[in-house]
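User: What would this chain look like folded?
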Amino acid sequence: MSRNSSDRRTVAPPSGRYLPLLVLLFIGSGCAALIYEVVWFELLELIIGSSAISMGVLLATFMGGMCLGSFGLSRAISAQEHPLRVYAVLELGIGILGLAIFFALPNLGGLYAAVGGQGSNGLLLRGVLCAICLLPPTLLMGATLPAISRWVETTPAGISWLGFFYGGNTAGAVVGSLLAGFYLLRVYDIAAATYFAVAINFVVGLAGLALWKLTPYEIPASREKVAGRAVPGESWAVFLTIALSGLTALAAEVVWTRLLSLMLGATVYTFSLILAGFLLGLGIGSGIGSLLARSATNTRAALGGSQLLLMGAIAWAGYSMIHILPYWQFSPAPASSLEAKFVVDFLKCLLAVLPAACLWGASFPLALAAAASPDSDPGRLVGAVYAANTIGAILGALGTSLVTITWIGTHGAQRVMIVLAASGAALMLATAVADESRRHKFSLKSAGWMVAAAALAGLLVRTISPVPGLLVGYGRNALKFAEQSGEFIYVGEGMNSSMAVSRLSNGVLNYHNAGKIQASSEPRDMRLQRMLGHLTTLVPEHPGSVLVIGCGAGVTAGAVSIDPAVERVTIAEIEPLVPQVVSTYFRWHNFDVVRNPKVRIEIDDARHYLITTREKYDAITSDPFDPWVKGAATLYTREFFELIKQHLNPGGAVTVFVQLYESNNAAVKSEFATFFEAFPNGSVWLNTDQGEGYDLVLLGQVEPTRIDVDKMESRLKSPEYARVSQSLREIAIFSGVDLLSSFGGMAEDLKPWLADAQINRDSNLRLQYLAGLGLDLYRQDAIYRDFVQFRRFPRGLFVGSPEHLNELRIKIYEER
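Assistant: Here's the prediction, encoded as structure tokens.
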């Protein structure tokens, strides 16, 4: 190919008519990337757990791969390669790797289960597994924008197109997050979502190859002279500023996701809306920033100005989420359509996060323009700026989720974000003044901008308040309970969640988490919690060792611990503050369980604990969060129940809490049917409230369950079981017959009712999508009446004297 100047003009990249098409390709690329992110995180959470530490490892690996890919592309691939060909190959590679991960992950999960463990070694193995799975495709994802950036010049117009590509990628990510959360995973499963993302990658890759064939390319002569030079050496301030921007952006996403999930309900739909709102702002801001990059005379001043405005946007978000949006009167009634509820929730997200997200989005193209020189290699320029932004984002996400929130709370984290944004603003505005004076030194005017930014930060941090107990306690219902919330005697923000303990005027204690009451000393709640614990130990013949999943108020674990036949109790709890602090407020109700010498507490996600422990138990009881809380459905899957079976000794029993309130028929059916697939001999035990349905317990054993009523009665009357009998009397259960009269049906009897039930599996997590649609619904009695009609006195479940069996039969039918 000729290399004279006229030839360069004919092949100078690129023809303007193709640039909008490249934006479309980046939209598709972003859509696929977000679907992968959702799917991979879901799959890996099932293996390494969903604790903050596991999520930190996942996020660091994912973003670390993006960072390495963006920084390394221009150094690994020659600038002589056609950018469209490189981009197309990257997209095809992402699709191939996405497919490979989907099929390989079960084997990798099995390997991790065989060698994984707790402590630092377990953490290292989590990181290795994530690296094996996520680094290859994320390296390619991070390289796509630097690859295509070589198709434009580092002129103001070219830089603005890079911003449009970035904005298109972000817009596609918005579509991907909504598509995955509201359709692909709700209606289909992880396999369908993966195939859809792979198909997008292949379409984008093939389209890129077609454009490569249509468009010639030659590296411009001006760029050849400085091959290997990325950006001017004096651009260090730009890199530091965009790193601070990435740090505050991901820190804000962590903090605001927690606050918004309290306010809106922590369903999978809420998380999709929050992510979409955040990404939408990034996309809009990127477009605005791209236009500014083309026309601004001083892009450093524009970048500094964006950080200055960002301080106010962060303050607005923090103020609105605490003082305005939780009490916003315009909310759809529970009977309103789901679409109306989602629209209102999305509007609340946008009102809070959109201003700041737009400014973060604008920062990237402005940073590119501020760091660029006409002869820079655009691939190295984009890679370096993107890498700096991503490094900051990794630090922000990990530091905030693992350290800052637990140390100084969400309000303290937001104050730090304002100070960091002020630092970036002061730095850029000061260097912009120095550039304008052509002295490249700080002046009195530069110092003035720094003082002004510091003063403004000092004013804005005062607007950020600690999260109130009312919001932590009642979340989306804070306004409804404002007058009857009682006294909040403890409010804490842990690594994984925010929690509170309140005391009502009548002395009732409430434990709040996920924006609602999770346990209380109300009679109906105490009845369920102690039923759950006592059924767990009274049904097996030899309940020597018991695993309790979820500590909560500790009432269930306490009921387990006082059984004299129980020698060891292990409590698996994901949030350290719950056993450390919360359960101590309930010590008069939970028999001070956390200080019981036969109790051991494991701070870990329950799935991860069972995957990595070799210990077996005589009984396991599970009382996790409501299934509509994102992540809780992983403790209700067929595979999880099979995992429990593997950890049961012969004759062992498992009990599982199931709520009927804030649920719907489809969700409850899914919980029943999934449990009964793993435990076909399973049974239902009812906790009614004044004769109406409220919640219940599922009980299962590998072998057919046989309950000797005579033995249970004898045991409860013995002196050794005096504390157990007293515990039962406190919840109005005065004998073994009373306890067993809560029988609600056998799996075999409920088959007609469960004919259309959807099984909750690891591959679809169907329950979290079904249960998420039951938020704010109180149809518990209707659900109860719907299935209890199938109950009949079971054959073979109960054995004992005719007198006790006849008494039990009468009491069961009285419950109808």
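The first helix runs from residue 5 to 11. If you want, I can go into more detail on any region.
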